[in-house]
Amino acid sequence: MRRRDFISILGAASAFPLTARAQQRERVRRIAWLGAGRADEPSPYLESLRAGLGELGWSEGRNLTIGRFWASGLDNVEAVGRELLASDPEVIVAQEFTVLGLRSLKVTKPVVFGFSGDPLDVQLVQSWARPGGNFTGMSYLAIELVGKRIELLKEWLPQTRRIAVLARPQHPGEPLERKASEEAAAKLGLELSYFPYASRSFLPARDLSDLETAFRAIVADRCDALVVFPDSAMYEISDRVARFALDTKLPSVSGWSSFANKGLLVTYGPNVRALYRSLAGYVDRILRGTAPADLPFQAPTTLYLAINQKTAKAIGIDVPPTLLARADEVIE
Q: In which domain, by residue range, is 221 found?
């Protein structure tokens, strides 16, 4: 055999493993995102998921495609869910209430979801440790933090005597949050008044009459602080809630930092963006062969304190330097 032919054969043989690995790398996996919102608005939670997937080696355009689907409320989530299923993804990632639509559709594909409630209350999993079916993920309902938010307000503003709680009764986590709030208020010697916002609308908010009724009742009740229970529908109207709190000079607190960005005074709770970044780990393990039933449902692991300094100045209160030092984010 001539030397040149031998080298050609050797080169072809050595290139074969590289070619095989390249073909493996080129396999494109398919997932779908079912978000709460509108396609024409940016989603920090989708971006957090994408960032988490990137850290684990999944890159759109190389080895991953993400189909993006958006539901504006309970009235269209099932229709959007059917459209999503027609795209035949390998894994579905659902945000907030959209997972309830997938449950109603009796989806059999793996579903990873973030949810501001207890999944047991709405029969999404069999247990936190062993979800059992094809649904798993993380909750950002941290009941132990509900009282901490009220304590934070009282510590910051010791003259507080009566707090108003603005909540959506149909939110799955609401009963637990209300009970924890009542216990915390009683422990601190505070009076608590509960004001429901019962509209079923999600995104966009269509009927604000119940909200305006609640606002008038809060003013009539002479409350001197406002606690807002967070969920997707409440976030949709959070700019209106923030304007009300500003107009009435009510210190306001909620659980998600996005509410502080909308104008509430302070938020303390789970880092929801970090949670959606963590959901990428579930997607990664499922794509690599782990069954959703074997991936424990988890509670939030990262907390986030955000203070809106601009709102504090507008309602005439000072933020203690010690509190500013503790904050993860200060909005000027």
A: 143-270+304-331
Residues sharing a CB contact under 8 Å with residue 57, sequence separation 6 or more, in sequence order: 63, 284
Question: Per 3-state DSSP, what percentage of the chain is helix, strand, and coil (rounded to 5)?
Answer: 45, 20, 35
Query: Rounded distance, CA 286 to CA 229, Å?
Result: 33
CB 116 within 8 A of CB 141: yes
- Is residue 4, in this structure, part of any structural domain at all? no
Query: Cα separation of 30 and 63, whole Å?
Result: 9
If asked whether residues 187 and 137 sit together in one domain, one would say: no
pLDDT in tens, 177-222: 999 999 999 999 999 999 999 865 555 456 688 899 999 999 999 9
Determine the pLDDT at residue 330: 98
114 near 275, Cβ under 8 Å?
yes
pLDDT tens digits, residue range 268-300? 999 999 999 999 999 999 999 999 999 999 998
For residue 133, give the amino acid letter.
Answer: G
Report the number of distinct structural domains present in the chain: 2
